[in-house]
Amino acid sequence: MDGTGVTAGTETPAGRGLNPDGTIAREGALDRVPGAFTGVVAAARAIIVRESGALGLHSAHLYGSVPRGTAVPGVSDLDLLLILHRPPARGDRERADAMADALDRAHPEADGVGILLADAGSVLSEAERHDLGFFVACLCTPLLGEDLAARLPGYRPTSLLARETNGDLARVLPRWRERAAAAATGEELRRLTRTVARRIVRTGFTLVMPRWQGWTSDLERSAEIFARYHPGRAGQMRTAARLARSPVADPALLRMLTEDLGPWLAAEYTAAHGEKAPRP
């Protein structure tokens, strides 16, 4: 039993996001991209190819709901990771932001376009083995270039993975409160709420992940799995999942996430898994 009357063994490995050997399965694929998003994915590929030389591109990846096949037109955003041969510089960030803005303006089916930058050395480093490495190997779908997953280990739903992926929530909360206080428009508040809610739900899921022994990136399912173990906070986590998908500019809801659920979750997380070491 998992402590809530649910027997984990009744769920198959595939149903818990695992390979037959118990390692976490890669969750996305290009053939799962919904038809409504094939145009923006093709446009993203084209603009990345055009800018690849200037960026020193090693590879490009999709992640999030688009490669998982669950994206909703006009609601879901397009998430990209660009891995460079060298550490990203300020000019690379500016170039990536310009690419994201161009894609966002031309493709209303995506509610925003985000581009993360990393370098191959960091992805393969020991320090990032269970954070950025896990992200690339299990949560990212190759779009262009070498797939570094072949050079990374299999990952299991352990306390170590929980700590290294989301064990820094306590350090992030003050920054979110500062951004909320400085938000000048409803749109800024809405986007911040989506960012915060997504992170809260993912942290809530990884808090209980080693007990559930599986992986999911689906936010609604994550909230329900969390609720099995922490029923007293289930309502707040379900609200966070709803806001992650359909954010609103409501300061009271954002305060609930950053001043009530968030601090409680950070304390529980540190007690269960420890705190992630600060990165440079």
TrEMBL record:
Domain of life: Bacteria
Signal sequence extent: none
Polymerase nucleotidyl transferase domain segment(s): 59-92
Name of the molecule in the record: Polymerase nucleotidyl transferase domain-containing protein
InterPro entries on file: NT_sf, Polymerase_NTP_transf_dom
Parts of the chain that traverse the membrane: none
Positions of the UniProt region annotated as Disordered: 1-23
